[in-house]
């Protein structure tokens, strides 16, 4: 009898998670486009990423089982408004790619990304993009990184540096090789044992309410697997929710049956918008008791980890600890120390992540005591009910990445409620900042004092000009503002700097009085017969 061949041992391989961090417009999404040969950036509003996306790609390298290695990439927004979303991506990553544009160097969000890296256990790789551009100074960038605590290779450190160009593909293969090398060196395995009863754990990166698909949560699997028909357990408003998984989508919108450890995708059909930054657990059965024990156990672990951070001197009220624990609705404003005012806003966004980012940034704006008061915030399109609530609270309605339904448009017109929608976050923030600046700027009104007809014009030996006239209405007053008018045209706008009756300097000339007035600025266009309108400026 022939001896049976021994089946080769198949080792479980966890897909590593790589997050991309960096400043807006430094080429993060373009780099990923080149890696997966897609064109995501062309579809982003304003050419900048405003949401978290997660996808898994196979690279041209083999794992221990002879299959192509896979890497899960998390793309994060670069605009400062999305710092919490960036932090979430950085905290769960095995490797972080710190993107720095060769022509731009370190920028505010680059430095913020460095702080996220320092606060995490991820291993960084510096990726300098746009190296195809002329007149770049790569050594300068490396020195700047060293000053910020990222000690790169060649500058006394061991952080790898890869120079790439998404435009012509330079360095892409080297980058993938470097990622693979870092992963092999650190031998990533499952991070910890799952709670009893759980078969998987995922981290929520984004939650949106889709018109056709319902609630959609973008997740990355940290441990175990998730498949259609299994159950998910998570915490919502202090309660444990258990419900069946109805399906998954890839980042490209394809239906998938399961998510493996390290892979990412979108969970469909959950009854709630799951809180960003939270962990959800995959369970085999709809067992409420087991689910509650899992959620309670995880809550305890999170609390213990935060206590350790505080005990070790970590700043739990800012930086990474807060960025992980802070959820929608946590942002608050403080009372103005000086007298100011509030701009009432009803805010609707297309996703939980966007809502959190826009909300927190709006609440942080303060222009000389004038700030934003968010009367209501939510996910989804702007509806008639939103307009009605805005009318009652005297609020303007701001929408980000949402639509205004037909009934809402009609109600807004009827109720005279201002509705503004945006696809680019910084435009929203700029307009609101401008509005608050306008509110904080003292309003001026003109109080008419009197009129006079110019009868003679004198030029003195020192070159100054005196307008001789007679007051026909009210009074003309020294130190106040005036227009010199001819018909409907203003010839000059100025200030009455001197006023005389005969040889006597006076403060004002009443109706019927003759006077000589000096006006600054002087104008050679003034003629006899022109009219002086004198007025006082009141600031409201």
Q: Can you summarize this structure?
A:
The chain has 540 residues and is α+β, with helices and mostly antiparallel strands.
Question: What percent strand?
Answer: 35-45%
Helical stretch count? Answer: 11
Largest sheet report: 8 strands, antiparallel
Strand line-up of the largest beta sheet? 11-10-16-7-8-15-12-13
Summary tags:
540 residues; eight-stranded antiparallel sheet; disordered N terminus; 25% helix; 11 helices; alpha+beta
Could you describe the 3D structure shown?
- The protein is an alpha+beta fold and about 550 residues long.
- It contains 11 helices and 29 strands.
- The chain has helices at about 30-35, 85-90, 110-120, 140-145, 170-185, 290-310, 320-325, 350-365, 385-395, 405-415, 425-440, and strands at about 15-20, 55-60, 70-75, 95-100, 125-130, 160-165, 200-210, 215-225, 225, 230-235, 240-245, 245-250, 255, 260, 265-270, 280-285, 340-350, 365, 370-380, 395-400, 420, 445-460, 465-475, 480-485, 490-500, 505, 510, 515-520, 530-540.
- An 8-stranded antiparallel β-sheet has the order 11-10-16-7-8-15-12-13, with helices on one face. Strands 2-3-1-4-5-6 form a 6-stranded mixed β-sheet, sandwiched between helices.
- A hairpin with a 2-residue loop joins strand 10 and strand 11.
